Amino acid sequence: MAELIAGLIDVLADAPLTGNPLPAPTAMIALLHLHPSLEPRLRSGNDLLVESLGVPNPPNTIIPSIHYIDSFGNRCARFVAPAGHLRLSGSNIIEADSVPDILYPDARQMLIEDLPSEVLQFLLPSRYCEVDQFGAIAQSLFGSVKASWECAVAIRDWVHGKISFNYNAARPTKTSTDVIIERVGVCRDFQHLAITLTRCMNMPARYVTGYIGDIGQPYSGVGDFSAWYQVFLDGRWIDLDARHNYPRLGRILIATGRDAADVAITTSFGATNLIKFYVESNEIDTEGKLVALPLDVGKRASLVTHSEVNIPTQSNPSMASPTQTQSATT
């Protein structure tokens, strides 16, 4: 099982409150619940607590939210945050897959005319995936590759091999064109480029956000949300990851969309300033005890502290949140 703890604005008792996170009452949308498709595997939690912090005078006030399912099938929460300090937090326990990502070497690409109508949108250009500008590039690189799983994997591997990971290269306006020119980015940039090239080859591809914890892997640092993508082959959506280019354990789905703009952690219709950001994902046994990582056992306990919560997000490299907050995924 996986235990997931997520706090978008997580202000701890020993952390000083500075700045003015919300200068005025602000309408917001949050995508911080697990995907509805995971409900049969949910063991506890999956509630989003929205609190207006009593600063400087407690107590905190719980802000009511309304839940709805968006056009992509994601569970969203909408609310109006009062001026001042806001905290979004939640945790859950879910039965995770017991095996790494499944490979589908015999999966075939479907003809456009045979695709379900709702899938066609994932062939088109979107905010960060300029499909209309990449046709010649995609054909020159993958035009001779068999239109199937083989082509999908060739694109994933090419992006993984050509793009370098660097947190400092994150910025909210970065598109696939920027990524292929600069050859550096964060997790979401890898996926955007792979999605763009995949769509150019007439394979539907969509962006995914969720958790990938250090489950069955050595400790890799302070947590974050993660991104990968899915390709539609043989009538099913199949997970691929141009950043973590090997089968992973513990992918936990939050939301899917055309690209990162559709699955932002929060969308705020007004000025907001992100103060703290904290995500943790762990494997636990049936008794609820933490499962040790395979290497560097004990290192996690010494490195993960509540003082390590100031992790910039993809559209928040200077800790000043713009309209959409998207994680600078690991």
Protein described:
The chain is an alpha+beta fold. It has 2 domains: 158 residues, Immunoglobulin-like (Sandwich); 150 residues, C8orf32 fold (Roll), CATH 3.10.620. 15% of the residues lie in helices and 25% in strands. It is built from 5 helices and 17 strands. A hairpin with a 5-residue loop joins strand 6 and strand 7. Helix 3 packs across helix 4.
Binned, the helix content reads 10-25%
Overall form: globular
Question: What would you say the CATH architecture of the largest domain is?
Answer: Sandwich
Low-confidence stretches: 6-15, 297-322
Q: Which series of helices and strands comes N to C?
A: EEEEEEEEHHEHEHEEEEEEHE
What number of domains?
2
What composes the largest sheet? Answer: 6 strands, antiparallel
Terminal residue distance: 21 Å
Cα radius of gyration in angstroms: 20 Å
User: What is the CATH class name of the largest domain?
Assistant: Mainly Beta
Q: SSE layout and pairings?
A:
Layout: E1 2-7, E2 26-30, E3 42-45, E4 49-52, E5 61-62, E6 66-69, E7 75-81, E8 86-94, H1 135-142, H2 149-162, E9 164-165, H3 176-182, E10 184-185, H4 187-200, E11 205-212, E12 226-233, E13 236-240, E14 251-257, E15 266-268, E16 278-283, H5 299-303, E17 324-325
Parallel strand pairs: 9-10
Antiparallel strand pairs: 1-8, 1-16, 2-7, 2-15, 3-8, 4-5, 4-8, 6-7, 11-12, 11-14, 12-13, 15-17
Helix pairs in contact: 2-4, 3-4
